[in-house]
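Async update (no meeting this week)

Hi team, since we skipped the sync, here's where things stand on the single-chain job. The sequence we agreed to prioritize is pasted below, unchanged from the tracker. I ran it this morning and attached the output directly underneath so nobody has to dig for it. Comments welcome in thread, and please keep replies under the output.
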Amino acid sequence: MKRLTVAIDGPAGAGKSTVARRVAEELGLLYVDTGAMYRAITWKALQSEIDLSDEQVVAAIAREAEIVLDPPEVLVDGVRVTEAIRSPEVTDHVSMVAGMAEVRRVLVEKQRQMAKDGGVVMDGRDIGTHVMPDADVKVFLTASIEERVRRRHLEMIRRGYASDPDRIYQEIKRRDEMDENRSHSPLKPAADAVMLDTTGRSIDEVVSMILDLCRTKVSGGE
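Output:
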């Protein structure tokens, strides 16, 4: 399965990263967390104390930054930022950065370079529609907003941050609206993506379903 390409998309809190990482591990493939890339650029922009509304300056940071993804670790220019990119401050600003067309163009090119030889599981919001439109397997994960809020709340508590479910609800609702309505690569399922609702499903169950899709593809079934 070394050349297989798997695209996993979905909104915030649908379980993309956890599921995609597990699928990659099971198949022995490279895992690329594109959301971590946008968070890494947001973190660096915040550290640089620039005007985050200046798209050209943020895009320049995206072009120049060296992002290394070594799951679960994330490094930016040699600095380990694995936890830092999940901070509330980064979360509050990543939607703005991810909505910038020029930033997306820069990072999409980097993502395509990572996937050019195949053998990759990549998750995000525009992987099956834009980054890897020819992916062998495309999955779009969904979950109820209540379930996504619950997961994000537990994640923040686990990481040691204060968490308010009502605030998370508003954040996720706002992020959904921005992702779905942005002019460049909006969040939407690819026409040939398999839709999986993860509400009430365990991680193991969702991973198993995606592995079945991958094995079916490799064996020649459709």
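Quick observations from my side:
The CA atoms of residues 4 and 119 lie 5 Å apart.
The mean pLDDT is 94.
Reply here if anything looks off.
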